[in-house]
Amino acid sequence: MADRIRIRQVKSGSNARRNQRRTLRALGLKHHQDEVVHVDRPTIRGMVETVSHLVEIDEIEGNDE
Fold this sequence. Notes:
The protein is of the alpha+beta class and 65 residues long. The protein has a single domain, classed as CATH 3.30.1390.20. The protein is 29% helix and 26% strand. It is built from 2 helices and 3 strands; from the N terminus they run E-H-E-H-E. The chain has helices at 18-27, 42-50, and strands at residues 4-9, 35-39, 55-60. Strands 2-1-3 form a 3-stranded antiparallel sheet, with no helix packed on it. It is globular and about 35 Å long.
């Protein structure tokens, strides 16, 4: 199975730039403290880089979820 990453929103996006708010929404993060799991792909990593000051990521290997 491909490696996955757990993304957790740790800061509010309400005062962030519009593209950052839209990136949070595209990742599936709607509220402060939301968590989502995505397959670790370059596109997802790029989105996370855009909002890196608002989120934390943890790498998940194997079937741990």
